[in-house]
Write a structure and sequence with these properties.
- With 370 residues, the chain is α+β, with helices and mostly antiparallel strands.
- The protein has 2 domains: 168 residues, Aminopeptidase; 177 residues, 3-Layer(aba) Sandwich (Aminopeptidase), CATH 3.40.630.30.
- It is 28% helix and 32% strand.
- The protein contains 11 helices and 16 strands.
- The strands form 2 sheets. It has an 8-stranded mixed sheet with strand order 1-2-3-4-5-6-8-7, with helices on both faces.
- The chain starts with 5 loop residues before the first strand and ends in a 9-residue tail after the last strand.
- One of its GO terms (molecular function) is protein N-terminal-serine acetyltransferase activity.
- One of its GO terms (cellular component) is cytoplasm.
- Keywords: Transferase.
- Pfam families: Acetyltransf_3.
Length: 370
C-alpha cells in the first residue's frame, strides 16, 4: 500500500513516528492488548517500540502499518496494519489495536473502513480479519466494518506459551458494501430482559463458578447433551466466548437472575440451528433452591417473546425427556405444543440412548407470564 496518510472525519491514519514511542509503550502495557497480542514482549519497552516503529518490512512487502491518530491533536491513539499480503491472490489481513484512553468512540471501525477502502483502491480483492472468540470488542469492529463471518480456523494463532488457539475468520470482498453486517441475533434492549420477578442477562466472564455449580447438579447433568459434567476449561471458554457466539448469530446464553436478591438462579439458551428455515431451539435449567417459582416458564416466555419480535425466528422448538414431567409442564404453560416423539434421539447415561419429545412454539401460541 502507498504510505500516504489517510484522513477521515474521525481519525487520521499516518506513518508511525519516533515521537509516538511513549504512547505505544503505554498502550502495550494494557492487559487487554497483551492478552490478544501474545507475541508482544513483556515488559514492553521504549526500545521495543522504536524497533517496531522503524521496521519498514510491511511496506516493502506490500502491506502497511499506520498510526491511528486523533485528527485534532495528532496524538497516537492506536495502530492498524495490513499484513500477511498474498499478491497472487490479491488479499491481505487487517489487524488493529486501540489505546485504553481512546476506546468506545468508534475510531477502530473508522480506521478499518479507511484501510479497506485504500486497499481495494490499490488492487486488493479480499481482506480478512482474524478474531479470538474471547475478544467480542474486536468482533464488533469487524462486523461494523462490513466483514462477514466465514467460520473458525483451528490453531491459527499462537499463545505466549507456544500453544495454539482457534480464531474466527471474517472477510470482505472488493464488491461488498461498506456498511455493518446485519446480525441475526441483535443485542437485548438495555442489556437484559425482565418481568419484574426474573431478569435474564447475558452470560459473561466471571460466571464460571456459578456455571460449575449449576452443571454439577445430577439431574441437570442427566439432561445435558452429552450427559457429562463440563470441565472447568470448557466452562471458562463458554463464558469467555458467549458474547462472540451471540454476535455471530449462533446462540444466546442467558443467566436467570432472581430480581429481588440478584442471585443467579439458572440458565436458558437459544440455539439458532436453522436460520435458513427460521427455526431455533431453547433449553433451560434451574438450581434446586430456586425451583417451584416459575422461573423456567418465565424465562422461556421472555426469551421467545424477544426472539419473535426482534429476529427472523418464526418457530421455536424444545425437547424433553419423556420422564421429565416438570419440563413438559413448563413448555405447555409457555404455549408450546407437543409435535412428536423421537426415539433414541439423544445420548443417555453410561453410553445409552434416550427418547425425546419434540415441542414447538409459533408466535401466536405464546402465553404471557402472570
Amino acid at each position: 500500500m502507498k504510505p500516504e496518510p489517510i484522513e477521515t472525519r474521525t481519525v487520521r491514519l499516518r506513518p508511525l513516528r519516533v515521537d509516538d514511542a511513549e504512547d505505544v509503550v503505554a498502550a502495550c502495557a494494557d492487559p487487554q492488548i497483551q492478552r490478544f497480542l501474545p507475541s508482544l514482549p513483556r515488559p514492553y519497552t521504549r526500545d521495543h517500540a522504536l524497533t517496531w516503529i522503524n521496521d519498514q518490512s510491511q511496506w516493502e512487502a506490500g502491506g502497511a502499518s499506520f498510526a491511528i491518530a486523533d485528527p485534532a491533536t495528532d496524538r497516537l491513539i492506536g495502530t492498524i496494519g495490513l499484513h500477511h499480503v498474498d499478491s497472487d491472490r490479491a488479499q491481505g489481513e487487517i489487524g488493529y489495536w486501540v489505546a485504553p484512553w481512546a476506546r468506545g468512540k468508534g475510531v477502530t471501525t473508522a480506521a478499518t473502513l479507511a484501510v479497506a477502502e485504500r486497499a481495494f483502491a490499490e488492487g486488493f480483492d479480499r481482506l480478512e480479519i482474524l478474531v479470538d472468540l474471547a475478544n467480542p470488542k474486536s468482533l464488533r469492529v469487524a462486523l461494523a466494518a462490513g466483514f462477514h463471518p466465514e467460520g473458525n480456523r483451528r490453531g491459527a494463532a499462537r499463545n505466549a506459551d507456544g500453544t495454539r488457539r482457534d480464531v474466527t475468520v471474517l472477510a470482505r470482498l472488493v464488491g461488498d458494501p461498506a456498511k455493518p453486517v446485519e446480525r441475526a441475533l441483535p443485542d437485548l434492549p438495555g442489556g437484559k430482559l425482565t418481568d419484574g420477578d426474573l431478569t435474564l442477562r447475558p452470560l459473561r466472564p466471571g460466571d464460571e463458578d456459578f456455571y460449575h455449580q449449576l452443571f454439577s447438579v445430577p439431574d441437570i447433568v442427566a439432561s445435558h447433551v452429552p450427559p457429562v459434567p463440563p470441565d472447568l476449561e470448557e466452562i471458562r471458554l463458554r463464558c469467555a466466548r458467549a458474547e462472540s457466539r451471540w454476535l455471530l448469530g449462533e446462540r444466546v446464553d442467558l443467566v436467570m437472575v432472581d430480581t429481588a436478591t440478584g442471585a443467579p438462579a439458572g440458565d436458558i439458551g437459544l440455539y439458532y440451528q436453522e436460520p435458513v428455515t427460521g427455526q431455533a431451539m431453547i433449553g433451560y435449567c434451574v438450581l434446586p433452591e430456586f425451583r417451584g417459582r416459575g422461573f423456567s416458564r418465565r424465562a422461556s416466555v421472555l426469551l421467545c417473546r424477544w426472539a419473535f419480535a426482534n429476529t427472523a425466528i418464526a418457530r421455536m422448538i424444545a425437547g424433553t425427556n419423556p420422564t421429565n414431567g416438570g419440563s413438559q409442564r413448563v413448555l405447555e404453560a409457555a404455549g408450546f405444543l407437543r409435535e412428536g416423539y423421537q426415539r433414541n434421539r439423544l445420548p443417555g447415561m453410561a453410553g445409552g440412548r434416550i427418547d425425546d419429545i419434540l415441542w414447538a412454539l409459533l408466535p401466536g401460541d405464546l402465553r404471557e407470564t402472570s
